[in-house]
Amino acid sequence: MHKTLISLAIGSAVACAVAIAAPPLPNAxxxxxxxxxxxxxxxxxxxxxxxxxxxxxxxxxxxLLKVDDKPITPAxxxxxxxxxxxxxxxxxxxxxxxxxxxKFQAAMMYTGGRTLSKTLSPATLKxxxxxxxxxKTPVAALDPLEPWAVSLQLALGLMASQxxxxxxGLDKVLMARAAQAGKPTAGLETIDDQIRALxxxxxxxxxxxxxxxxxxxxxxxxxxxxxxxxxxxxxAPLLDSQFRADMAREMPATYKLINVDRNVRWIPQLEAxxxxxxxDDTLVVVGALHLLGKxxxxxxxxxxxxxxxxxxxxxxxxxxxxxx
Length: 324
Fold this sequence. Notes:
The chain has one domain. The protein is globular and about 60 Å long. Strands 4-3-5-2-1-6-7 form a seven-stranded mixed beta sheet, sandwiched between helices. By secondary structure, the chain is of the alpha/beta class. The protein has 15 helices and seven strands.
């Protein structure tokens, strides 16, 4: 379940972009494990999808990254240079619109007189109170929030304690690059679409996720670091089996809303780019988990008969190459 919550935290562009006052977690200031002074270069989760006359590049983003991650690799640089336009989960203009934070915060709140303390068990409330105590944040401060919103705040606070920042995320970096280069941008969905997906999770799954998180928050730190390491290594099979598949198994309804349904809605828009007349190419930047597994965008496009290749680095030559 910890993997599911961390996956959720990095899987929503809008959640990572909206400033949420997340209380710090106890004993989470120092990263787990010895620091690596010179980390290996990032291996991008990058695919090309082609038809007869043009292509789209599918790039798997990590919405929260560290300052020293440097995710713009030569392969990503080449894809960005070749693309005439860039698509993201949501239009960049909506990400920076002040109304977005207002909408997001409204969606987080209970309505009809319900509160968090009336929803959670006494044991879970006691664990949550203990977790918040070092930050002097009373549980009452979170009482108006639905369980998914509390989990998300805690997960983002956990990630921040390890140096993961939304303004360093690959999508945010490429939004700034696109604006600087004057490349047209677009979104696969709206802010409202993404908020509905987050807010639509069944309450039973929301409560289960929060209960397991507060029972062992330290485990979440390990999972965040492991997920980040797998993304840096471009290890698609590990990300798929250990994170995407876990979410599908542990929170099936949430997984369908957050991942499957959105992937299905994106496919026609991606196909429209491929079928458009001319040779204009598009770079598409979405959360990495959307590209993985049988439910992912990559396999859905491959099943429709498009030529799909993973851009990988040749260990001998150090050059990028396409692989099936």
